[in-house]
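Pipeline run #58 for the internal structure catalog. This entry was flagged by the ingest filter as a single-chain record with no existing model, so it goes straight to prediction. Upstream metadata was stripped on purpose; only the residue string is passed forward. Reviewer on rotation: M.T. Logging verbosity set to normal.
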Amino acid sequence: MRIPHLRQALVAALLPTSAFAAPPQDSAGARDDVDFSTIDIKDAIECRLDAPTYNGFATAATDDATLATSHWKPVKSANMLLAEYELPNPIVVAGGYSTRRIAFTSSGVLAVLDVADPGVIAAKVHIRNTMGSDGLVDALVASGKVTRAEAEAEIKFHKFLGERVISDVTDPADGETYRARTTIALNVSNVVTHPGKTLYGCSYKMELLDKDGNPL
């Protein structure tokens, strides 16, 4: 039995951790003196940049003038929340996997790898799956909109979602009203819009905290 609207709900539920979007222009916390040509995209993917440098790089990398000289080709994505590009030459990441396809999210950049099982890569980088299909089935059944049999029949995609925090730093309190928290994390995931692919990369999250340490 095909369940109305269930497929759309699954697509939303099975997206990677952060909401995806093109890199924000003039990002808060971005360095404005970043020279795109001096930064290797592999360093951004492998969490080897600091957050301000990454934000400056992401802004520069997707600028029309830079694209004209770097020969990165924008790619129409099956996922409206991914900003995808094809690189002029392959890169090797995650300990030996080659690709020419990358994707920016609202907080980071991913390599799109031809690996059907994300667990293979995740095991190498010590990342565990924090969300399985069983959890999705439970959530859908708990919503009261479908039976367990209906949910299990519909869900054929085995979700992988995990990260390993590389750095989590909060500015010390100094009497100012606001301070920043910066989190850099290596991510492995998959998504229904990219069957047979593993998304591998890094998120660089910067958030403002109020004087009590609460996110604004």
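catalog note: The two ends are 44 Å apart (CA to CA).
catalog note: Residues 6-209 form one domain.
status: ready for reviewer M.T.
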